[in-house]
Amino acid sequence: MVQGENTTVVTWRLLSPGEATLEIRPLLAFRDLHALTRENGALDPGVAIDPGMASMAPYDGLPTLHVAHDGEIRLTGHWYRSFEYEEERRRGFDFTEDLWQPFLLAFDLNGATHCDATVIASTRRHAAADIHLLRENELTRREKLTRSVGDHDPSLPLLALAADQFLIARGDFTSIIAGYPWFSDWGRDAMIALPGLTLATGRPEKAREILHLFARNAPEGLIPNFFPDGALPPEYNAVDATLWLFEAARSYVAATGDRTWVREELYELLGRIVERYVGGTRFGIRIDADGLLDSGAAGVQLTWMDAKVGDEVITPRRGKPVEVQALWFNALKTMEDLSACFGERGAAALYETMAERAKKSFLELFWNPDAGSLYDVVDGGSSDGSIRPNQILAVSLHHTMLDGGRARAVLDVVTRDLLTPYGLRTLSPCDPRYTGRYEGDAAARDLSYHQGTVWPWLMGPYIDAFLRVNGGTTETRRSAGDLLAPLLDFLRGEGTGQLPEIFDGDPPHRPRGCPAQAWSVAEVLRALLAARG
Q: pTM value?
């Protein structure tokens, strides 16, 4: 698949001399990924034929498809009816589709001992002879990319190639697609994935473009939760996505030392964001009298645990979620550091005072002595003692409010109840609401999405917490690397070079959700580099 184009190249090689004829009958859906095609009269069956090229525009307003080839073409023009898709059937979706078959391509491979059949399907016009240059360019590009992460671990080049597939163009800027095949670019996912996808792979210029894209779409102190498909405006229903922007900016400075760009492009915006959070912005996001961040709006999920079934909120987390407070403290300390670096002493002192106030309240309100860990949410006079992975961020983020003893206690509880070979569960199996398998129709899957399902991206924060609590010794780093081994085995095997969105909470922890997820790859790559030191 050619980088930067809507182009797929397929070649066939006859491995030993013999008599063989290859016939290919392309099947076209020509549709959005969220819909299925039915036999219809709107389709234009016309095929424009030139030497080595067939072009068609089945529907008005959609791109022309060009198929370059080095065979013989014969027009057919048939509907193949009632393809059945088992995965869609299992998920409770429409699962039957009709596909258009416009022509047949025939290749005479008699006596061939080399690559002798080529098809290039593209929205651009290519010639079949372009295959050699396209292949050479792609191999060169991949070799350069894999060199950026080194070769001291065989999984690093694979992770670098996997990471590259999530960097996309949105207008004139680079963005991050959250997952394939059905996600768009999400602010939270992009900010979490940015260090692993760009900084760890030696592409700070891509990091700057991503930060600039989201920063320029930040009205009222919020970056987009996600960009919808098409020309629809961004959605802003998230309390934590904007706070991850501060951590992404901090990571950029730590990796590059480039404070000048942050001063010129981000610092003023980051300050305005803090002001809006203090004064209040959309969805009830505001600083409470105790210095902690409160949020909530009826029927709106603002944290990453955002599943809903109809009007039912599956993991209601209104009030003060634990990871939001950890991110808020980290943001304030990041601003304190930047302000001091830029000679803004008054601003640095203000951010320091705000951070200390938040820390004092956090330690008073969030420690759960019965569980020896942190509450998941504090809302007024009630505290949610659910054992969830969100509390690990209070240990893993660069600026933490926890001392060594409490940090170790949180790590121990998370390890005991939530750690699996493929990531952290979203709820302890001891909880009566725990659901160990992510399966069934859409409603059943949404009910289990954050009620026990394992998320690989959480291995990044877990490894950070593990190294912080246990020290950066050679033995500790080796143990951290061992924790990532099952995910790396999956990458090299069943994952075919990618890591999925989620796994089942129960053994054997089958992969579920998107087969390729940006923050899964990014955080495992970043954590592996951290473990290798």
A: 0.94
